[in-house]
Every structure is written in C-alpha cells, then in structure tokens.
Design a protein that fits this description.
With 177 residues, this protein is of the alpha+beta class. It is 28% helix and 25% strand. The chain has five helices and eight strands.
Length: 177
C-alpha cells in the first residue's frame, strides 16, 4: 500500500491518475464477466478448489513492467500461484459468458503498482523503479471472489475462500443414467 501511495503522490497527472491502482494489493487469478445467476455455481466450484488447496508462501522481489503502460512488483514464487490458476481454469466453462466474453487467466503473477500510464508517467517512473529494490513475503491462506456490477467502480467481496488442504474429490455428474 505504501509503494502505491508513494507512486501516486510522485507520478499522478491530471489526465492519467486513473491508471494508478487504488485499493489493497492483490494477486489476480482470473478476470471474467458472467450473469448473476451463475454466481452460486461459480462460488461452489471455487469453494471446492480452495478446500483442497494448501496455504503457500508468496515471495516478492523488485519491480517489473509492461513497456509503455504498467509497473508491478515481481512475484518470484510463481509455481503455487500458477498451479492454483490451472485448477481454477478447470471451471472456466462456468465463467464463460459467451464466445466473445471468455475468462482471462493470469498466467504471470504480479502485484500491480500502476497501469494504463501515459508515456511520460511510465518513462519517468520506470527509470526510477527499474533501479529500486524491494523484497517481501507473506502466506497466502485464502482467495477472494470479487464482483463489480456494470457501471460501478469499486469491487465487492462475494466471499473469502480459505485454503484448507483437505482431500477433496469431485464427481462429474452423469448426463445419462
């Protein structure tokens, strides 16, 4: 939070401050659009995934960027997050609104500091952050399902899903008996 605040104070611009990320830092796993009636089915599937997943350590080191528009904190312990994304990907048919609105899975974990930067913001900030050092670690013990209704700016927490490392078996329903 302090890095984001510092970034915002130093690089905000009247025309482009919307690109500086507000809110708590997060590691996004997937972004998707769907209809409200699918929420319970998606939530139940994610609960099952979380119950079978184990808490894991996330290690952070220094900064990375997507040239010309985004700066983020690098995640160096990628495998547990990528494995979790793979499990969530198994539920993608529930997250697919239609052929034009498919879920977007985050294959490269990162914590975004700023995105949608205008050229002057990116160039000045990356000159500084490419030489700046940062390290941190934390235990990820849960994941959140967030939603944002069309026309709203803020995200709402639907539910916090604890990683319980329990033996979970899922049985696919049979169409014909």
């Amino acid at each position: 939070m302090s890095i984001r605040k510092e970034f915002h104070e130093k690089y905000k611009g009247a025309a482009a401050s919307k690109g500086i990320v507000a809110g708590k830092p997060q590691l996004a796993l997937v972004k998707f659009e769907t209809v409200e009636m699918m929420e319970e089915r998606i939530l139940n599937r994610l609960k099952t995934i979380a119950m079978g997943y184990h808490p894991f350590k996330v290690e952070l080191k220094d900064f990375g960027s997507y040239p010309s528009h985004s700066i983020f904190i690098n995640v160096i312990s990628k495998m547990p997050i990528q494995n979790l994304v793979r499990q969530v990907k198994d539920a993608q048919r529930l997250m697919k609104l239609d052929k034009d609105h498919k879920p977007h899975f985050m294959e490269e974990p990162q914590i975004t500091i700023a995105r949608k930067l205008v050229p002057w913001q990116y160039e000045e900030a990356w000159l500084e952050y490419s030489n700046k050092h940062f390290s941190g670690r934390f235990i990820a013990d849960s994941m959140l399902l967030l939603k944002k209704r069309e026309g709203q700016t803020g995200w709402q927490i639907v539910q916090r899903l604890e990683f319980m490392n329990l033996p979970v078996t899922t049985k696919q329903g049979a169409l014909f008996m």
